[in-house]
């Protein structure tokens, strides 16, 4: 089953504190955004990539796409103030019908198998999200005091990609804009329409590179994968 993907990359990476867009930082000497793009560029069921960027960084992105021979980026779309605004700008220009994925530029470790499973599920159910069961005990806190301990057995951490029928994602974003609703992911815009969103169990190493220490985790995840590949070839 084929799909197109929106990759928001228009953030500034404040929490990474690197003095530039964190997506230009390197892991194993390759920029993070290139790792992410390569996953989709090499997946034959991906029909196109819509990349939202900060217009001030257009030349940097263009040069990287050329240098690393990324083929499937159809458009570089100016993003907005919040992540949701950036995704919406891409949603507005999508030409295709069928399934669309939204995947953070800052999550380079997503696997093709998970993408396949997610796309199948979204085709069947209209909306699906990759998530993992929460490992920590999560507490709701008010003024640095525990207000409540949540039932861990029902808590999952949502990741990306998140997949939708394109018409549904469009409607969800239009409604969010109309109601001035700002969510931290795309399924929350669909949930508020009362539409069920299916879960695909993902992997804990599909991390979003957010703070400095995530760069160490990222190097470790790559080394682990390289070792696995070598073992598979023995
Ligand atoms: N993003 C975007 N447009 C924005 C904000 C974020 O396209 N206005 C993108 C980021 O580039 C990233 C993804 O959305 O690939 C997830 O956001 P996040 O991890 O929060 O990245 P940043 O917003 O760049 O980081 P921070 O919140 O620390 O500033
Ligand atoms: Mg952010």
From TrEMBL:
Cited function: Catalyzes the formation of 4-diphosphocytidyl-2-C-methyl-D-erythritol from CTP and 2-C-methyl-D-erythritol 4-phosphate (MEP).
InterPro entries, A to Z: IspD, IspD/TarI, IspD/TarI_cytidylyltransf_bact, ISPD_synthase_CS, Nucleotide-diphossugar_trans
Protein name: 2-C-methyl-D-erythritol 4-phosphate cytidylyltransferase
PROSITE patterns referenced in this protein's UniProt entry, alphabetically: ISPD (PS01295)
Similarity-based family: Belongs to the IspD/TarI cytidylyltransferase family. IspD subfamily.
Entry EC no(s): 2.7.7.60
Pathway in which the depicted protein is active: Isoprenoid biosynthesis; isopentenyl diphosphate biosynthesis via DXP pathway; isopentenyl diphosphate from 1-deoxy-D-xylulose 5-phosphate: step 2/6
Site positions per UniProt: Transition state stabilizer: 15, 22
Top enzyme class: transferase
Pfam families: IspD
Name of the gene encoding the protein in the UniProt record: ispD
Catalytic function, reaction form: 2-C-methyl-D-erythritol 4-phosphate + CTP + H(+) = 4-CDP-2-C-methyl-D-erythritol + diphosphate
The keyword Nucleus is annotated on this UniProt entry: no
Record key words, sorted: Isoprene biosynthesis, Nucleotidyltransferase, Transferase
